[in-house]
Give the backbone structure.
Amino acid sequence: MKKLTFRNVLRTISNFLVFFLTIGFAVSCCMMLFLNTLADSMGLTFTATNIASAAKITFINVLLLTFIFATIDYVRRKINIDRPVKVITNTTEKIMRGDFTARIPNMHGAGMEGFNQIGTAVNSMAQELSGIETLRTDFVANVSHEMKTPLAVMQNYGTLLQTPQLSEEKRMEYAKGVTDASRRLAEMMTNILKLNRLENQQIFPETTKFDLGEQLCECLLQFENVWEKKKIEIDTDITEDIKVEADAELLSLVWNNLFSNAFKFTENGGTVSLSLTATDHHAIVKVTDTGCGMTREVGAHIFEKFYQGDTSHSVQGNGLGLALVKRVVDIMQGEISVESVVGKGSTFTVKIRRA
Ligand code: ADP
């Protein structure tokens, strides 16, 4: 909204003068042309007095008309331009102050199409910003929450370690508690940093051509201790000679997370299967387990940061594994999906382009 300053008043007067002079010039030209034609065709002669009084009347007419038009234009501007501009400015100011719920209403009337377009764009921007803000606050809340648990564990064990005349066995147990909790904290920080770098595209994939079956076997073998301890049966069906061109380190992150979950969520004596097949253009990896499975509701959220569907296993992990997996698969322009039945098990399927 324009403020009433000396400069603005001067500008309004000069605008009016320009408008007046333009209309005056145009009307005078028309009048002279009309009078000349009239005089020629009717054989009339105009005296100086006639012309002077006609000029005065024309001047007053032009002044009156320009004043009326300027007033109409002023009112039209107030309604059609200043009002929507004020609504848009007020809303954007609210958004700037952090109120992402503010929206520009749809404005009715002639000439509002442009403003409504701006309104729609601002509203979508506010919607996006509110999503980002929720993610940010959720992220901070989640990180703080996740940090509190291992810190509390470390504090407790630390206090217990200060007990005098502690048996060697207890001392070892408490010290192990501190080490485990600090390892968990360090793992979480590493995952957060990795995820952050992946999201900000600071990790540029270093692609090489390699045999996918070999990589899968190498990753699976790292879990030998776990499957032996839990007496889990391993079932593999790997098509040979399937090459992919990808960042091997990033891709191994995907397999390690999927295997780690499969072993974590499968009870003793269960089975974990790995299969690698291929179509003309894609390699398809399936990691199946006979674990606890998950509901459709849980399945819909597992790729979100810090989401943990099964809290009974929350001691191991922090809900970042599958968020990392999804990010890596997205970077590789692949696809990941999950099929799961509660109590029966889950199958994660990853599809990536072949070399
Ligand atoms: P974390 O394993 O640390 O909890 P993830 O991001 O790896 O975090 O997994 C998120 C959630 O997805 C888990 O908490 C669990 O509920 C579910 N989930 C993942 N893999 C499986 C699986 N193989 N079987 C059942 N549930 C799973």
